[in-house]
Amino acid sequence: MDALDRFADLDRFPVHDLDGPRGRALLADCQTGLATQGAANLPAFLSTESVASLAAEARALETLAYAKNTRRNAYFTPDDPSLPQDHPLRRFFPIVISQVAGDVLPPASHLAQLYASDLLKEFVRRALGLPRLFRRADVFQNVNLVFIPPGGVQPWHYDQNQFTITLLLQPPGEGGDFEFVPNLRTATEPSYDGVARLFRGEHPGVVRLPRPAGTLTLFRGEHAMHRVSPVAGTRPRITAILTYDEEPGQWATDAENTMIYGPRVRDIMAARRATER
Ligand SMILES: [Fe+2]
Fold first, then answer.
1. What is the whole-number distance in angstroms between the Cα of residue 88 and the centre of ligand 1?
2. pLDDT of residue 26
3. Where are the domains of the chain?
């Protein structure tokens, strides 16, 4: 049985009936948002009770998160001293977040049940207009929790994935806004002037999505530069990231997973490779 009806507000968001008139209207709204802004934002997608239980589950797993406190540029590239000092590729910003890998999520947890929902996956597939969609095979990357502590920040960047699905489980007390500039670059034009303007705090096209607890967001971050503004207050901002692929069987490399999840996952992968030999 699909668990989605226990977690989502299907009266407001009829993802179980996408061919009915209200389901079609919901899909059309999402498709318009994705086409014009790169984002479809569904506040109160989760019921109040289920978001409370999902947030409590997440807080219980926080001690297993791998904390990252480093600097990076918006393009995930190393510094290039051949470029002028003020080039956007040479702007390195602090990143302070921590992340829980999918392999530690109990299979009976509400978040695991939500990720297992075929109704949710089918809704995402149709909203994104894709011929097929699969849950990610990689047991570390499939479903994650991201914590941004007070004082933490996720700096400006473009995504390497074509789309990202997030659930806001716990908004912070203050700050922690999801901000982005739709279509800041294209496949052929990097628009570094616009990026430099954004970094100076002068870009007029910054969009901030309202994302109270329980919001589902479908986001295309390949051409829309985005960040989470610095988190203030006393509690972390917590989001779940649900990862899907257009092809089955997708795994990240051991090096990528070690970078994201730290020594715990590095050791698991090393043990696995040793038994393969
Ligand atoms: Fe991103």
1. 17
2. 98
3. 41-103+133-276
The CATH number of the structural domain formed by 41-103+133-276 is: 2.60.120.620
Q: How far apart are CA 266 and CA 273, in angstroms?
A: 11
Q: Residue 1's pLDDT is what? A: 66
Gap from CA of 98 to ligand 1 centroid (Å): 14
Residues in the chain: 277
20 CA from centroid of ligand 1 (Å)? 33
Around Cβ 133, how many Cβ atoms within 10 Å?
18
pLDDT tens digits along 170-203: 999 899 999 999 999 999 999 999 999 999 999 9
15-44: pLDDT as tens digits: 999 999 999 999 999 999 999 999 999 999
Q: Which residue has the tokens 């894709």?
A: 130
CA distance 16 to 29: 16
Handedness of CA 241, 242, 243, 245 (dihedral sign): negative
193 C-alpha to ligand 1 centroid (Å): 21
pTM above 0.85, yes or no: yes
What is the reported pLDDT for 161?
Answer: 87
Q: How far is the CA of 159 from the centre of ligand 1 (A)?
A: 5
